[in-house]
Each structure stands twice: as C-alpha cells, then as structure tokens.
Design goal:
about 220 residues; mainly alpha; about 75% helix
Length: about 220
C-alpha cells in the first residue's frame, strides 16, 4: 500500500513518511531512515518527519544524527517541550550530562514536569558527581511512583557513593530483579557488601568480573580468598 502511494506521487512527502514508519515497525531501520530523509527533503518544514527521523536514528544507535534531526525539529517547533525531554535522554547516551540538564531545563520551562524529568536530572547529577542532588531528584521520582527500572539502579549507585551501603544493597536488589545482565549492578552491590563485611560480597564481585569488569581482579585477590 505504501509503495503504491510513493509510486503514484513521488513528490508526496507524507507517503515516504508513512512508508518509513512501516519500515521502522518491521525493524528495517536503514530503509526507514532513507525514507524519512526523503520526506524531509521534499518538505523541509514537516516537523513530524524530522521527529520520526530522529527516532529512527536513535533506534539505530546513531545518537549524534538523531540529535541533529531533533535540533531541526525544535527549530520548526520550539515550544515542543517533549522534544527537549527526548533530546536530554539522547545527550545522556553520549555522556553530555551538562547539556542534558540544559535540555531538561528547557522542557520544564515549557511546562513539562514528570517523574522522568526527575530521573533524567538524577542520572545527570550522579554522573557529574553531585550525589546529594542526584539522590534528591531520584527520591522525588521514586516517591511519585515511577516504575522505571533505572531508578532502582541509580538509587543504589548514589547511596553507595554517599556511603549508605545497606540502602544501596536494597535498591540494587530491586534493580537486579528487573535485570540480571548488568555487571555494574553486581559490582556495586559487591562493593557495598564488602564495606559491611557481608560474606556474599565475593560472589557478586566474581560474577561482575566474569561478566567483563576486569578492574575488579585486584579487589577480588585482596578480599576473596
């Protein structure tokens, strides 16, 4: 159906946009990107196609290209608060935490405030070393009832950095119930357990080491006989 629409009017931008959405849904991201790009070329002012192009790039792991597409989308609709939220998440992916905070500031100034904005702030503050600010934001999202698994991970990481080892272990236990494939969860829980002389520490550290965190080898040699 979408192919016929493109063939019947090759200059109709929405035909390419809609075919690209179908490609994206089926996992054909390269084709989706090409069609979204064609749509934006045919109609450079089509906000939705720039937004969709950014999403296709994001799914393809091309964060920088996604950010470029989002910038164009924002130039067309600078009042779109949700786009700043998406932008902040992409900036976290490329470890641009200060810029991610700026983007979430823009989103909130435009009226967007939810538990996700608090989580984003918490993650940024954590990576910038502002652990007390991180804890404040993450607790805010937690108390608001957020179900995002990241909240448990980062609450665990943050409590560990603040020396609250038992609290860290509690949140990391919850994070591991959501996913047991992240070696950092085992590593930090192991270090927290080590600090309170919990015999289970070495099991966690060995598991994290086996999953690829090689720098734990010295800690294991010194503490796990």
């Amino acid at each position: 159906m979408f192919n016929k629409a493109v063939q019947s009017d090759p200059d109709y931008a929405m035909a390419y946009n809609n075919r690209a959405l179908a490609y994206e849904k089926s996992g054909q991201l390269r084709r989706a990107v090409e069609d979204f790009k064609t749509a934006t070329r045919l109609r450079p002012g089509l906000f939705i196609s720039w937004l969709n192009l950014a999403e296709a790039y994001r799914q393809a792991g091309q964060e920088k290209q996604a950010l470029e597409a989002l910038e164009t989308a924002l130039s067309l609709n600078p009042e779109a608060a949700f786009v700043y939220e998406i932008k902040s998440s992409l900036l976290i992916k490329i470890e641009a935490y200060g810029k991610a905070l700026d983007a979430i500031d823009n989103a909130e100034q435009l009226g967007l405030t939810n538990s996700n904005t608090s989580i984003i702030r918490g993650i940024c503050h954590y990576h910038l070393g502002n652990y007390r600010n991180a804890l404040k934001m993450l607790n805010k999202a937690f108390k608001a009832g957020s179900k995002d698994p990241l909240i448990f991970s980062y609450l665990g990481f943050t409590h560990y950095q603040l020396g609250n080892y038992r609290e860290a272990i509690g949140f990391l236990n919850q994070a591991l119930r959501h996913s047991d494939q992240d070696p950092m969860l085992f590593a930090i829980r192991g270090m927290a357990r080590l600090n309170i002389h919990d015999a289970a520490a070495c099991d966690d550290l060995r598991k994290a080491y086996a999953m690829g965190i090689a720098k734990l080898s010295t800690t294991i040699e010194e503490n796990c006989k």
